[in-house]
Amino acid sequence: ARAISVARLFNNRCGVDVEDDVLPKRFLKEVLPRGPAAGQKVDPEGLAHMLVEYYEARGWDRAGKVLPETVKALELE
What we know:
This protein has 77 residues and is mainly alpha-helical. Helices cover 49% and strands 0% of the residues. It is built from 4 helices and no strands. The radius of gyration is 15 Å and the shape is elongated.
């Protein structure tokens, strides 16, 4: 968890945020050819919901920025 937040802090300082956390368009348009999810494609709304949950689990805000309390808890100050 700590290493991922360190990398995210670096990326935040370089201007990376939620707008940059996207999948290639191909993943949203093409159906999966095989496997348990064959014939399905990634649902953009479901993906957006999962991203919010991922950010919350990591201790980041909805914009994908590491929260100050997360920085403190991980002793990254």
